[in-house]
Amino acid sequence: MTEHSNSHWDRTSPVLQGEFTCPACAGQMAFHPERQALVCDHCGADAAIATTAERAHVEVCLMRADDQALLELGEGAEAVSCRTCAGEIVFAGGSLSERCPYCDGPVVREPGRRGGFAPAGLAPFRVVEKAAREAIGSWFASRWLMPSALQDRASGARLAGVYAPFWTFDSRVVVRYVGRRGRKSGKETRWTDVSGTIEVPLNDILMPASNHFTADIRDATGPWPVTRLVDFEPRFLAGFAAELHKVPATEAAEAAKADIRPILEEQVKRDIGGQKQQIVRMEVDLEDATCRSMLLPLWILHYDHGGEHYRVIASGVSGNAFGERPFCATKVRLASLAATAAASLLGAIIGLAHAAAYY
Fold it and tell me: How much of the chain, in percent, has pLDDT values that exceed 70?
């Protein structure tokens, strides 16, 4: 085992391939979300995963985070590259998929590529595949503008489990602003130029570390247990996949500024005071920023319709789902006609009421 002494993340023990082999029948073992253990695909025997939460909540200075990223995952992990979406995926154990969990494209095994990004912690899968399919089925059922036959087709589509990379940030957010304070005087509003600086402490700002995910996906599939992580352990990856962190911490921190801007704008308006407020300019800085790297579990269902590829994503913790879908042109037209008819009927009722009041 190679020792790295410059980071709390460097203390991950190598996992040998034999540790994914069932001691009872020599079958292949994979992580089972319901039993929270390695379970043999052949005989059902299980093996507990010993872990703590000592490293999972260690914060690293933002400016040093990207220098500590590349570590050794051990001989039980293998990195592959997707030729379709350029994803860098890590599989642990012998059950390497031939398809990318993100785009369903083919992946290319690269023997000898054992290095990868070892995050500080992860949230283990807790939703089993069957429950994930049911949650995604409920999501489909609630989207009535979709083509009617699509739900049955998607129910048999491939479902992939993947640990997606994220960063969280803690920071003292300093906002320097220039604005205007308004006070009503009769029908007019009198404006006064103001400026100031406020500090807003924010904790656990969660940002994707992959271009495969957006803040919309993060929010729709949340909330996420970022305060209840366990230490990163490659055994949790057995039977699943994990993407390497592709977005550097410093770049994710810049994206976080835009993500939290609505919160900061409300704080600035409160500081401006008065009856009305206008923000002319805001400068946002993250002071004393620290971050953590983590993996969060997602189920991704792939399906095709009309020559286009779509995904539906469900949280591996809660089952909350969010997805992409086509629309049925006929249903959209009917909905539009119904809305127009309803508006016309409402207008007629209001007109009759006015006429009755006049007479």
Answer: 69
Backbone angles phi, psi at 109, to 5 degrees: -70, 140
3 state SS of 346? helix
**pTM of the predicted structure, to 2 decimals:** 0.78
Indicate if 305 and 317 belong to the same structural domain: yes
pLDDT category at 1 given cuts 50, 70, 90 is very low
Using alpha carbons, select from 195, 196, 193, 190 the residue that is nearest to residue 180.
193
**What total of structural domains would you count in the chain?**
2
Identify the sign of the CA torsion 134, 135, 136, 139: positive
Residue 232 lies in a domain: yes
pLDDT digits (tens, 9 = 90+) for 136-158: 888 887 766 555 666 666 667 78
Nearest to 137 by CA among 161, 155, 149, 153: 155
Buried b (16+ CB within 10 A) or exposed e, 278-308: eeeeeebebeebbbbbbbbbbbbbbbeeeee
